[in-house]
Structure formats: structure tokens, C-alpha cells
What does this fold into?
Amino acid sequence: MNRIVMRRAALAAACLCAALLGTTPRAAGPAIRYVADPGPSRLEFSGVQGGAEFKGVFHKFTAVVVFAPDTLADARFDVEIDLNSLDTMDDDRDSTMRGADIFDVAHFPTAHYVTRSFTKTASGYTTVGALTLRGVTKDVPVDFQFAANAGGAKLSGTARLKRLDFGVGQGDWKSTKSVADEVNVAFALVLKPKPAT
It folds into this structure.
């Protein structure tokens, strides 16, 4: 009888120690499939022209997000951007950017980003994925934060890329004297669960 009591006491003590040390194992939650709600979601970019920063947005894009913090191996982002939907609040600049020397939307109407790997960081997560822009595909890392909520989740983050790596800038626009090579991207996506099909 004393042995049974002692075993129970030892087990209880072990469980208590594990809880206090934060080592109680947690079951990994399955990755959830989300889609971006286009209304409240935003995809923005900024660059430097003539020494001054300019900003723009893409009004049309789709994003399918498969993510759960405990199952990064199953995570995946698939984003497609309608480049014709760019808006920098300057009609002349927008027309130039849609033209053959910048995005050339007549031949390359969309940009596509698909992730390959995910890593947990001190401030959130980093993913590395392939961006296809103007017919060129190169890896671009993205730093992001993910927060689940009752209605779905919020995904926000930033990325940096060099436009000339993708041939964005031909003719006079290839020079970095007037337009900087580096482009910053920021996004805030409101995600809702994607219904099973």
C-alpha cells in the first residue's frame, strides 16, 4: 500500500515540476487553410525616386495561407498579384510603371510568390519563397507575424527586394540615379478560413 502511495506521490511531483518548468508537452495543432479577405487586407510597396520616397498599393491580389505555429513543416503561402492594379496616387507614374520598361503588364500581368521554408524567430517568423516577377524567379525572404483570432487570423510582415534582379527597369529606368534599386514591401492580411472543397 505504501508503495502505491509513494508512486502516486512521485508521479504528481514529476507532473508539477514539468508544469513549473514549462516542459509539459503540447499537441501540435494542424495547419489551417486560410484565404485573404480582399476588403480589409493591404499589400503596399515603397521606393525612392529622385531622392524622395513614394508609396503604392496593389488593389487586387489573392493569398492562400496554410499555417499553424506548431506545424511549420506543413506551412505554405501562395500569393498572386495583379500588377495592373498598382496605385501610387500619380496617374503618370502608374502608367509608366505598367509600361514595357517597368512591369510590362501587357506581357507579365501578374507576380507570383510561393513559399519553400519557414523558421521561427525572436519577433515572429521568416519564410523564404520564390517570387516570379516579369518572367524572372528568385528567392525572397519575408519576415512576418501571425495571430489567430476567433474569426480567422491576421498575417502582417515586410520584405525587401532589388527591382533590377527581376529586370524591373529597362532603358532610362535601369539607372539607379533616378530610381533606387531597393524596394520595400509591407502587408497586413485579414485571413478567414477557407471552406473545404
In short: The two ends are 57 Å apart (CA to CA). Confidence is low (pLDDT under 50) at residues 1-28.
